[in-house]
Automatic annotation (TrEMBL), chain A:
It is a multi-pass membrane protein. The chain crosses the membrane at residues 21-42, 48-66, 97-119, 126-146, 166-188, 219-237, 249-266, 273-293, 299-319. InterPro entries: ABC_transp_permease. Keywords: Cell membrane, Membrane, Transmembrane, Transmembrane helix. It comes from freshwater metagenome. GO terms for molecular function: transmembrane transporter activity. The lineage of its organism: unclassified sequences, metagenomes, ecological metagenomes. This is Unannotated protein.
TrEMBL record, chain B:
This is Unannotated protein. Gene3D superfamilies: P-loop containing nucleotide triphosphate hydrolases. It comes from freshwater metagenome. GO terms for molecular function: ATP binding; ATP hydrolysis activity. Keywords: ATP-binding, Nucleotide-binding, Repeat, Transport. SUPFAM superfamilies: P-loop containing nucleoside triphosphate hydrolases. The keyword Nucleotide-binding applies. Signal peptide: none annotated.
Amino acid sequence: MANQRFNISMKKFLSDPILGVIILLLLVGGVASFTVEVFFTLQNFTNFLSGSYFVMLLAMGMTVVLISGGIDLSIGAVMALCAGIVAKLALQGMSVPLVIVCALAVGAFVGCLNGLLVTVVGLPDFIATLAMSAFATGILFIWTKGTPIVGYMDETYKQIGGLAPIYREVTVPMVIAIVVAFALGAMLKKTKFGVHLFSVGSNRLATRQSGINVTNIRILAYVISGVCAALSGIIMAGRNTTVPPDLGGGYEVLAIAAALIGGASLMGGRGRILGAILGEVVLAMTINIINLLGVPSSYQKIFIGGILLLAVLVNQLVISSRTKILMRSTNKK
Amino acid sequence: MSFPTALSTTRSAPIILDIRQISKSYQGVAALENASLQVRKGEIHAVLGGNGAGKSTLIGILSGVTQPDSGEFLLEGSALAPRNPRDAIKSGITTIYQELSLVPALTTLENIFLGRELIIERAGMKVLLDRKKMKNEVIELAQIFGISKDELDIPISEFGALKKKVIEIVKALTFDARILILDEPTSGLEEEERLHLFDHMRNLRSRGVGLIWVTHHLDELHGLADVATIFRDGRTLESLNLENSTVGEITNLMFGIQSNEAGLRTKNDRLQKDDKSNRPEVLSLHAVSRAGVLRDISFSLHAGEVIGISGLAGAGRTELARVIMGIDTRTSGQIFLKGKEVNFKSSAFAYKAGIAMLPEDRKQLGIISGLSVAENISISNLSSVSRFGFIISRKKERELATKYKEILSIRTPSVNQKINNLSGGSQQKAIVARCLNSKPSVLIIDEPTQGVDVAAKTEVHELIRDFTSKGGAAIVIASEIQELLELSHEILVLRNGSIVGRIENVQNSIEKSRVVEIKAEVLALSAGKRLKNEI
């Protein structure tokens, strides 16, 4: 009985998608602490983390979409568009809360459009969100006439962007990331909607046959990812101090990488919010280490590619060794 | 969620499901014709029949996947017309299919309550799952079926085939299922697991659930099923009380063997017994095994010969073909092709060496939909239509396809037609053409005439005979014994992966009286030795 109990908790632990990223985190962190002296300091940690909250938000939204069996390639562009909206409206003298509400509404709207395109219209997720990405970037280009939006910054936006702390080391982006992480984490684990998200991504037909409105679930997943992108854009506007038209380029790829490193699967039905966060931490840590080692920043992308491949390999290794361990434990019985 | 108390006997139990004269046809072809059957409370009701007998259509109608053209069915006296599976489940009819209808990523508990989760109210919001309450509701039932409390929290993907089946059963019971349809529930289960499943089925019976059990495994029936209804050609033939009927009777009904059945046509060009030894051996298998699937398969195939493979579904027929083709690896044994030992790494090597296969599942594995008839024919041997061996000549391709179109009388306005627009029979012939075009010395055909009308069937048979009369050798896998008798020189009967019987010199023994005898023998061998005594 005790043995069975152990087996079951073992099963649970080993089937957790987060296992891979923890291994990777220990690996990268371990290597860094031996090779780079200043790596293990609070200063360094807050430093490299401060630049990663906005990607974390993108990765969390992406994880929700990945769990539902989709993929959202528009979030980089939506983030930039929302940053543009913040800058534009702030320049026109709109109050900060109203600016934020407008940006969030645009994010939710684009997410909703994505959701409608993949469900009601029936386009493949990849194509619909790629098109949406092009639209969002296009709008920002028209708006900015190709030159960066400048001159909207004030003390409040500095705080929103995390350039000025609100209390000691605590910054607004950090708080937003933590609040969103807890909200989404609880949503996935403790609500009906969360269960249905996994269900849709894992076996869409069986979910539909259980009387669940699959369309609504999928649309809502994209809305969540759009809102996350908008939040990320609001932070970005403050952090970057200007909004160039090509601000969003490539961030969706980083978000996908972080989500996959964190144990999400392109096949749907798998993923964790904490995984996405740790996935981004691994990416940020890697960039931090190569910066500390004095490697030219032009090499960054190569390392990110390498980490992504390594992460997927580790996840696969975890899965296959898990099957072996479980087989052995059942054979013993 | 309450359950009826156990019933001691089923004979006098009330009818809970009354199926009355249900008919359904697809594009003018009747799949079900006035099918009727009654299931009593606490009864295990076996539904038997060969491929295409109408069993799946009936399940589809009962489970709300398809709607009947006419007829009705009553559950506990009230007529039911489920529009979708959800409807049927809610009304008390759950179907457990061969493939999984659970969600792998969710836990046992989440699967059981999927779509009807219990919600706890917190701060005026009804969003949080009440896992505790859900657990309490289901735990008692789960434990009866051997699912522990901890296992409720484990994702379905971690469980084996039996446990998944049992979870589906428990899920059905929480819907207060009064009729449970089990479609080939033992497929994919080990021997020991089967026995466990049967225990669960008895348990369900004692709870008063009416079980409809679709199975090919006749040897499992006795001692478990109470009644069996036999389907043939879309009609329900008879409901037998299994206490006083033998498997012999059942198989006779299933496959329509009657003593006055006409004998088989004998062909002049057929191979005679004495010249077999004169012909060279083309393919031979020595004790070929694949763990858990095939055991010690040995036979030799000579030029001009057809070996028929018989056996029930799951006996290892298709698996044998896959091992010969190198699609699956063998765990032991040797395969010789023209005297040389071969070990194909994939079917491409088998094709190169001269073995061609026509797969069973035409839609999925055979035709390449989207390509034209001509392209489908030439694809296995593109060099036959190429210039300098690598530039494909569309003209040559068309000529080749037109040649086969005429020889095989493939009915299509043009060989440029997309293959999916053709009838089933013509598609099959196009694939035969593809195989023949790769100039094989051995042709393996899995269910050569599945989904093919009578006329086309004869033509496909002619093609096979023509192929062997020119020195080719063929292995034909078929469920229909009649078909094997018409084509083969020797019939091997497979059961549980082993050859349990060989009927040699089929062509010599074809006399009217012997046909019935051979059929009965093959069936008895397929179903298991215990049954042989009964016949």
